[in-house]
Amino acid sequence: MPAAITTHSLTKRYGDLTALEGFDLEVAQGSIFGLLGPNGAGKTTLIRVLTTLMRQTSGEALIEGLDTRTSGRAIRRLIGVVPQENSLDRYLTARENLELHARLHGMEGRHYRKRIDELLELMGLAARQKDFPDTYSGGMQRRLVVTRALLHEPRVLFLDEPTTGLDPQSRRAVWDYIKSIAGSMTIFLTTHYLEEAEQLCDRIAIMDHGKLIALGSTQELKDRLTGGTFYLIEFGEDAARYGAMLRDMACVREIEVNGRAVCVGLASWECLSEVVTALNGAPVRRIALREQTLEDVFFSLTGEKVRE
Amino acid sequence: MLRGAFAIWRRDMLVLRRSILSELVAVVAYPMTIYLAFGIGMKGYIGLVDGVPYSLFIAPGLITMTAVNAAYSESTWSLWFHRKVQFTIESYRVTPISVSEIVIAKIMSGFSHGLVKGLAVALVIFAITPFRFSPDHLLGYLVFLIPGSALFSCAGVICGTVMDKPETIGRIEAIFIMPLIFMSGLFFPLSSYPANVVPWVRALPTTALFEGARQSLVSGVFPVGFALQVAITALLTFVAAVWIFRLKMSE
Question: Are B98 and B242 in contact, with CB atoms under 8 Å apart?
């Protein structure tokens, strides 16, 4: 079975700026793939190349085995795109927006009318189909954009930051829908919300400065994170003094004191007994394992500095 | 091949149909003001121009001006709005249609706006003035009006593609489009120009358009040279519009 998306040494330059550099990627059919990266990492450029909106400088990008440079029209038949901006036509009603999209895909009237009815019902927009998108809430507009992208039954769905700007309820509704269609098509998702990637994606790629810097499942990425195990130790008093004492221990790699709590990074979990022994007699109220999060992985790979 | 172009044109016509009354009021107001101010207000002072009353002399030009202005404005603003504000051009571009189809659709829409609005002004002029012409002259007039509207629609597509700021679009209209229209003999005969300037003015496609349209409609004379000039310019502008739009989209 060919991969849904493949790139080989994909490179895109804008003058002196390299937005993508030797990018190699393979996304399995039917999977949900997440792409993470700080602003300016090259995510949007990658999506634009994959959706045939932009031509690469060198390298190869294949969608369902079709080359983006030579089979643009055939690829656009296979893909659905939910862009960052809503890109809905505010002078057309919701239904008319969908009808226009169906005509652009060359769908037959009797076929698309039925499909639009089904999707509007499924997405909870049937009652408002004759309204203009401007009168919709942000969540409804987003659902309409997703509906439009699904209308022609794509085999690969690109979602570029699909829940940006949505309230938690609307975000959860979009997640639920993405989960419900998982398996029936390949989903390629970019997001700034690490929780979103963790919740939805089978595999995650982290990119920065146009390069792929990590790839794997959430657990694989967490396991790859160096720095060992983190524990949170809460003291009744003198947390700073005990923190300073722990800092001197050989097996302690990181210390962060926050009020009465001290976050201790150990080289390995075996060091815990050594720490407990050292704290004999100290007013320890609680010791808890602090799980590594995808955010820890992300920051460790891309840094915490705010990007322009 | 033009399935996508027709789908987008159909969308534009649906939107036009929804706002047709308010649009027509605005569109008719401007040329009618000019007609009343110049054609009626100045009639007593000007008398005959090229053998016809002044109010008849400017009528074909006003109809043509409305049509080409509407074609230009629709193409420019529609393309700019869909590209920079609504991002609908992006949503068209991820469907299996070509970039050329998008630009052809916008040219067709501009052209249709031009014809509808030109017709509206013509009907109002016929209704409230004694301006009349022989129906036999209409075909010759359309030979100018159709490629003329297409030419301005293509020019609008180029502006809407190249210009990113709305104020720049307004400036282009004020600096190039309106002078091209006004200086091409819309309100006065070309003989008013100094003799050494006339060949330059006659070389303008807008002169060919307005002079040719007037001669065809009022006198029934069909100036083949002018017709070819308008048609060839429209064709070249069309090729340029498609090329520039494709280039911009590949950025």
Answer: no
ipTM above 0.85, yes or no: no
Report the C-alpha gap between A307 and A172 in whole angstroms: 28
CA distance A205 to chain B (A): 24
Domain of A276 in residue numbering reads as: 226-291
The pLDDT of residue B217? 87
CB spacing of B87 vs A83 below 8 angstroms: yes
Q: What is the pLDDT of residue A9?
A: 94
Which residue ranges make up each domain of chain B?
A: 3-249
Between CA B241 and CA B44 the distance in angstroms is 44
Task: Please check the confidence at residue A100 and state whether its pLDDT lies above 70.
Answer: yes
Tokens of B43: 């009639």
Which of A131-140, A220-229, A297-306: highest mean pLDDT?
A: A131-140
Residue A301 lies in a domain: no
Answer whether B88 sits within 8 Å of A87, measured CB to CB. yes
In a domain, A213, yes or no: yes
Together in a domain, A164 and A237: no
The answer to whether residue A142 sits within a structural domain is yes
Q: Do A105 and B95 touch (CB under 8 A)?
A: yes
Q: What are phi and psi of A222, to 5 degrees?
A: -65, -40
Contact: A101, B91; criterion CB under 8 Å = yes
Rounded to the nearest 5 percent, the helix, strand and coil shares of chain A are 35, 30, 35
- The pTM of this model reads 0.81
Are the C-beta atoms of B96 and B225 separated by less than 8 Å?
no
pLDDT at A192: 81
User: Between the CA of residue A237 and those of A252, A256, A284, B4, what are the distances in Å?
Assistant: 21, 16, 9, 72
DSSP B137: G
Cβ contact B94–A96 (<8 Å): no
Which residues does chain B have within 8 Å of residue A53's beta carbon, measured at their own beta carbons? 90, 93-94
CATH of the domain at A168: 3.40.50.300
Using alpha carbons only, how large is chain B's radius of gyration in Å?
18
Considering the domain architecture, whether residues A47 and A182 belong to the same structural domain is answered as yes
Q: What pLDDT is recorded for position A227?
A: 55
Q: Do B96 and A77 touch (CB under 8 A)?
A: yes
Instruction: Please indicate, yes or no, if residue A124 is contained in any of the structural domains.
Output: yes
Chain B CB contacts of A92 under 8 Å are 11, 14-15
- pLDDT tens, residue by residue, B187-243: 888 888 888 988 898 899 999 999 999 889 888 889 999 999 999 999 999 999 999
Chain A residues with a Cβ under 8 Å from any Cβ in chain B: 51-55, 73-74, 76-77, 79, 81, 83, 85-92, 96, 100-101, 103-106, 148
Minimal CA separation from B122 to chain A, in Å:
28
Q: For residue B11, what is the nearest residue in chain A, using CA coordinates? A: A100
Q: What is the mean pLDDT of chain A?
A: 88
State phi, psi for A266 to the nearest 5 degrees.
-105, 150
Taking only the tens place, the pLDDT of each residue in A8-32 is 999 999 888 898 999 999 999 999 9
